[in-house]
Automatic annotation (TrEMBL):
GO CC annotation terms, alphabetical: mitochondrial matrix
UniProt keyword annotations, A-Z: Pyruvate
SUPFAM superfamilies linked to this entry: FAD/NAD(P)-binding domain
Protein name, UniProt field: Pyruvate dehydrogenase phosphatase regulatory subunit
Residue ranges of domain Rhodanese in the record: 44-87
Amino acid sequence: MFYRLLSVVQRQRTSQGWQNWSPARSGASTAEAHSVALPAQTQVVICGGGIMGTSVAYHLSKMGWKDIVLLEQGRLAAGSTRFCAGILSTARHLTIEQKMADYSNKLYHQLEQETGIHTGYIRTGSIFLAQNQDRLISLKRVNSRLNVIGIPSEIISLKRVAELHPLLNVHDLVGAMHVPEDAVVSSADVALALASAASQNGVQIYDRTSVVHVMVKKGQVTGVETDKGQIECQYFVNCAGQWAYELGLSNEEPISIPLHACEHFYLLTRPLETPLQSNTPTIVDADGRIYIRNSTGALSNRNEPKRSSQLQGIKTLSTPYTFRFPLFS
């Protein structure tokens, strides 16, 4: 998978610079856990303090919903959110997805001013590679859709690709698309910023509080049972991430949510001998099943064609509720 990088990076891969990565960010959330008892009732309960749950809380509070409780079993952003690549790309095939991605890009850019929390936002741009004509045609279609809705992008030459990313091997490519306003963020810090803004808007956030199951009567949500007591509510939002499937089955009226955890791999180098600029473009090579983004080195992630978790094992596959922070090695 590393033929996409030039030899200077391949040499770095085989040196002492390669290591297992573990998160070092351990700062306390700006939305601290409440020491008081849980409220007896609320309008909305959100389960999950990752980027999905905090985003739902943020946007509901922006729309004027004030009676909201967010529950997180561990610490905010402690699940899969912490290990997201943090790539903000508008290069989608559907216009609605492009508009949503563009909105997210703008939102995350202004969150630092709104909350004072550094989100790691850097406008790097993205380069999408084509190894064959079919891929190039697909990129041209995406490029046209982006231009129609006002998002800058262009099909560029291989010479221009090499200029934008000097470590990239371009000898086998037929073309590429450049989206200059794409960006990268720290996904965990974005979640903390969203939580902070939601808290300022009146959302009550409780960490170290687990949802045991959702109480239902005649098909209507009536509340949630937690490890610290019950909360009556009208609406429940399941943003439990890799635990969403098990939580859905634990409801008084079980719901099968089509989501399961799956083993995934990525690699991170130590800083290169000649460090990359912070705004070095993110590379997406769909044909090679790899992306590369700058993160004090070269972060490479491969979308594996074969996964260790098979769909037929879904009913026996579970993620312990105590699983958070660690990476497999």
